[in-house]
Amino acid sequence: MLRILVVLFVVVFGIELWGLIAVGSLIGGWNTVFLVILTGLFGAWMAKQQGIQVFRMVQFQLARGQMPTETLIDGVLVLIGGLLLLLPGFISDVIGLIFLIPYTRMILRHLLKRWLWSLISSGRIQLFFRR
């Protein structure tokens, strides 16, 4: 498992570096640096806005006595999207935006729930309930 993570880490950052060099050769080095900083700032702002919205929805659902399961999944997706937008690189920025936009996040949430339920039903993840 550790080998896979190391290879994934190296490959992802290699692709990000390649993307930064390619964009830098097209628009110039300083413009690329400015664009990376701008996407980082925009990502932090958008993650904050979406995080506040998710937090308020969790509070609202808890106040009504509802279990905020889907909203908590949204919170995890917003956190991942915000982290991806703070990383330098354009590919991680695009993926981070996909995680932060509410419509695409809804699709990701649905796919994540289906994947988790398949893991639970196959027995690879076990749930324990105590009474």
Automatic annotation (TrEMBL):
TM stretches of this protein: 29-47, 76-100
InterPro entries in the record: FxsA
Keyword Membrane annotated: yes
Pfam family, one: FxsA
Keyword set, alphabetical order: Membrane, Transmembrane, Transmembrane helix
Any single GO CC term annotated in Swiss-Prot or TrEMBL for this entry: membrane
PANTHER family: UPF0716 PROTEIN FXSA (PTHR35335:SF1)
Full protein name: Exclusion suppressor FxsA
Source organism: Brevibacillus reuszeri
Annotated gene: ytzA
